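pasting for ref. prot 1 ->
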Amino acid sequence: MTLAGKRSRKTHSLGELGALAQASFPEIAEFVSAAKDWTGWAADYRYPADPAAAKPLPEDAELRQALVVIDALAVRLRAANPEPPGS
């Protein structure tokens, strides 16, 4: 949102944040789609409700794929906002 020069409300929803970012950067649609279901990974374990109803942890392969998506998104966003020479 900073790169787009926009403000957003505080939220844990990656789907909501992704939609806002995608409005400014339509080319990141594939990353937004991949990340939309990751909100639970943060919220479910950060704010556990009933331990008996705990959700299973993500599989290693899911986490590895998430890192691939995050790295690719970072490359795309860095290309959109390159650092000034000498930084």
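and prot 2 ->
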Amino acid sequence: MGNALRFLFVKCSKTTTATGDSDSLEPPYRPTVSGVSAFAHDLFNFEITSQVPEGLSQHVVSSRKAQANWYGKLLQAWREAKPPPKTPEMVAMLVIETLNRHQKADVEGLLEFYGLPNPSINVGIYPRMRTRLPEPVLFEMHTLPVDGNTVPDGDGINVYVSTVDPRESSIVPRDVLIAADQRSKARAKKNYDKADELRQKIIESGYQVINLQNEQILARKYRIRLRGIDAPENSMPYGEEAKQELINLVHGKCLRVLVYGEDRYGRCVADVYCDGIFVQEVMLKKGLAWHYAAYDQRIELATWEREARAKRIGLWASSNPEKPWEWRKDRREAVGSVQHKIT
């Protein structure tokens, strides 16, 4: 780790122009190149001394103790980055990704301190650094903070993803962008009836304008179906308990969502992580969901269900709990029978 930082520090310090004349390098290039070097130098210094750089407090609002916490996280992130970031943009993204949950003023102040580019995006909705995804995963999402009131049951979540995200920004319908712009102008003129009308148009298109940190964020709505588990329906025993546990897990949190496909209801079938915690694992271990083996044969899911069964916790307190897929089938058949009699 130390060698990698020393190498980058030396490499970035020896800046040259395209012609190789280091003396001819003029602003604005010098600040950003030296910023990468300074950042690497300060991480190297922190690794040895646990001290944050002098002067940083003039750019950020948090205490030096908090700053030390940041540098510990940044040092770990640098260790895990392969290859280590070598450009101002890459370093800025590492800072943004690592300090995603910290105050906006602190993140922007840190970028300013090193002369690194600032995307001017809210903390909590910065585009994430792209990593290679497992082969079955179609795409990855990072959500805005989840509103627990939008959780429908124990295995579903409604989430919003900022359209600032590179993947989202390329697929926003033009009429949604126009409506969002017109709504902003209507609000500025205090024409709230018009603004509400435009907001409804945005919602009907599958988007929403969300107030986050006193800024209006255009975001796309996704309905998520937790992959590999099946929780009791709300009206079943332990259905409400499962729903409440899921709310407790995700409310107010930004989620990492790995999407594997789409079900027949248009929901994204996905693995969901909250603060590094695998949500499906929690639901299974607490006995609030079944392993949905018909659609997912992962051994670990079966193991977590088996452990909960052995402990007789959650729905396994019952000797023979009804399976939610059988419960749904019975309800469909009952409805079909009634409709047949009517016709």
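Strands lie at 139-142, 156-162, 207-212, 215-226, 229-230, 255-262, 268-274, 277-278, 290-291.
The chain has two domains: 2-114, 139-324.
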